[in-house]
Design goal:
There is one protein chain. The protein has 76 residues and is α+β, with helices and mostly antiparallel strands. It is 13% helix and 16% strand. It has a domain of 51 residues. Strands 1-2-3 form a 3-stranded mixed β-sheet, with helices on one face.
Length: 76
């Protein structure tokens, strides 16, 4: 289990298990599996995705667990 407070720029794409894109301050070992499903990203990349996704979350809901923007990924 991971207990990492203040995970930045979190964008949930699978809300049942809380899987998300998010910034990562605890390692720089990108490209190597380091989680239970989340996509660990450099801060600037996670910030870009967070700001690009819509709808924007109301600031009052920023700490609501299990809520986020649904992201659907399709292959070409």
């Amino acid at each position: 289990e991971y207990i990492l407070p203040g995970v930045p720029w979190t964008s949930f794409f699978e809300t049942t298990n809380g899987i998300a894109f998010h910034g990562t301050y605890w390692h720089n070992n990108f490209g190597v599996p380091m989680s239970h499903g989340c996509i660990n990203m450099r801060m600037d990349e996670a910030k870009w995705i967070f700001r690009w996704l819509t709808p924007k979350t109301d600031l009052a809901k920023m700490n609501t667990v299990g809520q986020g923007t649904l992201v659907k990924v399709f292959e070409d």
